[in-house]
Amino acid sequence: MNSHIYAVLKDIGLMIKRTWRKRLAFRLACLLIAIVVVLAVLGPHIAPYPRQGMGIEIDRSKALRPPSFDHLLGTDSLGRDILSRILFALNRAITTCVIVIAVSLILGIFIGSYAAIGSRILEVLISYLIELFLALPSVLLAALLSILMGGTYESILIALIITWFPWYARIAYLQARSLRELDFVRIPMYYGLSKWYVIQKHIAPNIVAPMLIEALSDTGSVVLEISTITFLFGIGIKSIEEPDLGMMIAYSLRDITTAPWTFVAPAVILALIAISFTLFGEMIYEEYHPVLKKRWWLWF
Amino acid sequence: MVLAIQSKKLSIGYEVDETTTLWVVENLDLEVEHGITFCLIGESGCGKSTIGNAIAGLLQPYAKTSGKLLIFDRIVIDDNNRKFNSVRGKVVVKIPQDPASSLNPFTTIGEQLSIAIKHHYSNLSEKDVKNKALELLEEVRLEKDVYNFYPHQLSGGMKQRAAIALALVPEPKIVVADEPTSALDAYLRFTIASLLKKLQKEWELTLVFITHDISVAHYVCDRVAVVYAGRVVEVGRTEKILSVPKHPYTELLLESVPKRLSKKRLTDIPGMPPPPGKYPSGCKFHPRCPFVFDRCKYEEPLLIKLNDRFVRCWKYYG
Amino acid sequence: MGNILKIENLYVSYTVPMGHLRYGYRKVWAVKGVDLEVPAGITLGIVGGSGSGKSTILKAVLGFVKPEKGKIIFKSFDLSKISGRERRRIAREVGYVPQEPSQSINPKMRIYDVLVEPLKPLKLPSDEIKRRIDNVLEMLDLDPDVENRYAKELSGGMLQRIAIARAIITKPSILLLDEPTSNLDISIQAQILNMLIDLKQELNLTYLFVSHDIDVVSYIANRIAIMINGRVVEVGDTEKILTEPLHPYTSALLNPEKITEKVKTSNNDLCPILTWCPWRLDLCSKSFPPRLQISDRYIYCWKYIKQNTISIS
Fold it and tell me: Which CATH number does the domain housing residue A106 bear?
């Protein structure tokens, strides 16, 4: 299975290179993503005021100061350095995004494939549940679930995985369904090899490529979803301290007329992340499905 | 005697990079009279489909050609220049191997025929167009209802007939049929083959029939050319060649086909046909030939005229 | 010499969505009332066009489709009614060679892994596994190196040999072959057919060989069954069937050039060749004839039944 992942990654790498050469917007998007990811990774280490960034320390005396030498992006209503907060928030956001997508993808592939080759009852059950989940608005559902689970950041993570994997499960299910009629899937099952083996060796390697493309193009949406949930609902009283772009934007609205920098900084960063990730994802997706280039309405 | 197809030292290849070209077909000298059925027999990868595509004007833009190809004395291939616009789809048509891929799955047979008819005969009324389509369906022995059917509602044999009807819309003179029966079962093969035979007679076509099925070739064609590694190794009248083969490859090929009521063990030719680019020196068949002698390994034999055929083999020289 | 496989009154159906909007389902019978006996050690060939049900019979024996009626008796087990666990135990005795090697072998797998798969449930020691793989590659005239190559690198002929190797690696007693040479070139077909004949003798196998090409089947089979539209119409020894075909459809198969008109088959419960049969009797429009045995031949035709009853009386 590892050699297949390697081959698939190589193909995706080639696709990235091709799109890089062809479209300027893609190059910009990649550049932005690179910057964002570097900042996210290094963020906690280069933040000038790490304790404020993490939310452990506040300094009311320095509340709402405009950008200055000391605080390059100013301070917020609790006197915390906005730059540090943003760096920690970025770190959080990117890590969460990667975990959500990776786990949903793996879960989706296995559950979807299992539905395709398992017993008919299981198939009906799983596909019904998948359709159910997909019919409900994911943002609201995720928010509800995370509140029910205690409203911590971790709960958002889990809630997002739960609402996100059905999408991949459905794609995996449909792909696996067309594979299950093929003899090289039927023969191992005929000899009695377990469904787990068949999924691992025969189904997953043949469906992972298009699904990775889907996953990549979803990165922007996941980041936005996290921020949307935190923006709209907050996530518990404790969390005002924890750095998060959505929260930062929400809380800056109160003082927006007097201290616009508390809004502008996180908002612009969020917008840049959203745009660059989405552009990256969608362009890769288009490269993989060239028909979309000519018929833009098929995106919807 | 009108020559429908004539080629002079025609070679067809594909560019691998700036300096190398893989030549699939080399120095083909072909002469096909108008009004006969001409068969290209060979195994997969021998280049017969490439020759068929060249005649039909369907070579890829990135293919490389050298030599000349003439359709009814009009030069269509002149070294690397290919000018097929006046003949492709009008004088020469191709019936592809897989009928499912030549029929648009989203339109009915009738619609597809109508589109083709309107394209070739721009001044017909709607009613005339429909009548012509129904006539064509009748020619290929399909019922009128098929006009309203979608390809997926038709069986393999019916799809193939529909593809033939589509090919006949422009009233062509040359029909290249690329393995039209290979996707069908043994019984249907003769039905489609006899249909093509009948159409060829009635419409006075030149039928270039590409196949690897020897019994169908025997049934349909007047003349046959055996192709191996991009070359014609034997060409002449079908009965002569298939009953008394002279080239070793033809001989061995005929012996590897199961014959009814003969319990003789089938000959299997050792080794495999060489892919383009890896053709051996001298005679391309020499590594697998049971009659090989020294000359075969270094010098490629020319097509030698015997009294009833042409053969490319040193055995018959002198 | 007993029957290693006996099929009794087999009926297999499948459902087809109706109409353009795919609303509702229609039942189509793929196999209707088929009786077949496969004595141990012979090759039984089944010849028929597409849609005749010949491949479906194999699928029913393997358990890929579930028959609606009938029995499939393999060595005293009724394969149409066994449990999953029993079927997996029997799987090692019934080998399967499908038609299209690119679909029956995962192109991304290494040949070694392809061959090991059927052995995994047997839990054999690793030296026995190695021995079997080497053995089977040699029997199929393959270079022992091939086990390290990937399936997508190999040609159709070689892949089909791997498919046969995989089918025999569990030391089965019977092989089910579904048009194993139909997609191959003539010379490769000859290689594979000769190999199958040699293997059968070496390993003392029984073959059930399905094809649409009567010439290929007559080369390799001792007995032939002719099928059309889900029904068997004639069964007999190869030579006799070729020289003295009894059923009109068999004659048509043997001389397709003589048939100039398109022949339709009726898809109801009656004889499939009713519309063009030269002998059409009254009984033919009432029901499908039962099996009649004439020495070692089985024929399903009212004309012969009538003849037989006349000659008896």
Answer: 1.10.3720.10
